[in-house]
Amino acid sequence: KYGADINVALFPYYNSDKLQYGHVEYYKLMLFRSKLIQEILASGINILLTEADATWLHNPLPFIANYSKLPGNFPNGDNNLATGVDMVLMDDKPYSRMVQGGFMLLKSTPATLSAWNELVDLQLKAVISFLELKKVTYSSSLGNEQYLEKRIFIRKARKGELNIKWLPDKKFVSGIWYKSHTKAHTTNEYVILNNWMAGLQNKYKRSFKYGWWYLNQTRLYGEGGL
């Protein structure tokens, strides 16, 4: 049940094949998502993107709101604290600057729109290329949005065309966190993603193991995250 002050919009998507990384259907879904984000940004709406399997151990919204007002990693001359950052990004792997597409703040600025439009164009070209090859599986960085985002965003930031800021990698972590943590007890992390794990069933099991699953079989809330 949603609160009366929460607006929910559903955009159905139907795929013709089982979704799996590297499959054409997977790249088509990612293109659908990117185009939806593109449309929202073009409407002048800022986006805090989070994936459904992310665990929020603390409310990240006040942190993100304050963090986004700080000067970015690559200042482009706009030092206004309210508007100086176009994107707040999360690193999928510490020190790799691989953009984590499952958690990011995107401000509806001309710089963000320019970068995102380029991303959508490249994703579309990749999907068309895959379909022309008539292959079901085509595992390549050519259509992977994370590789494309890193390439586009870093290039534009270094040229002063995009102002980005990276979230602290000790507070906002990817699924790599699970490799070095055997228990759920933690107080430092704000958000932990459930990636770096293949298969939905494996993700379910890992969430249950750490007590971070929201609903049990009777649809009751568990004792996990927020």
Overall description:
- With 226 residues, the chain is of the alpha/beta class.
- 33% of the residues lie in helices and 9% in strands.
- It contains five helices and seven strands, in the order αββαββααβββα.
- It has helices spanning 24-42, 61-67, 110-133, 145-158, 200-209; strands at 47-50, 55-56, 87-89, 103-106, 164-166, 172-173, 191-192.
- The strands form two sheets. The protein has a four-stranded mixed sheet, with helices on one face.
- The longest helix is centred in the middle third of the chain and has 24 residues, at 110-133.
- The relative contact order is 0.17.
List the helices and strands and how they pair.
Blueprint: H1 24-42, E1 47-50, E2 55-56, H2 61-67, E3 87-89, E4 103-106, H3 110-133, H4 145-158, E5 164-166, E6 172-173, E7 191-192, H5 200-209
Parallel strand pairs: 3-5, 6-7
Antiparallel strand pairs: 1-4, 2-7, 3-4
